[in-house]
Amino acid sequence: xxxxxxxxxxxEAHFGSKSVMAINLLGMNFQxxxxxxxxxxxxxxxxxxxxxxxxxxxxxxxxxxKCPQKSGRRATSGSA
Length: 80
Fold this sequence. Notes:
- The chain is mostly beta strands and 80 residues long.
- It is 10% helix and 31% strand.
- It contains one helix and four strands; from the N terminus they run αββββ.
- Strands 1-2-3-4 form a four-stranded antiparallel β-sheet, covered by helices on one side.
- A hairpin with an 8-residue loop joins β2 (33-38) and β3 (47-54).
- It is globular, with a radius of gyration of 16 Å.
- The model has no long low-confidence stretch (mean pLDDT 80).
């Protein structure tokens, strides 16, 4: 299925997960843009997909990789 030019409901069915509201991709919220973020369950490498919609039709998509949480000490700036 092509995610672009689809609907939010169709994207939820394609990715197999519910969406959550996200920051707009193009910063055009006054023009009617809405963005939704998906974390597909089959992508266990930590990917998230954000879809931007105009008039409930998806027109932009941004995949992003989440950074894994590292255990141990955190790096700090400055001298110790």
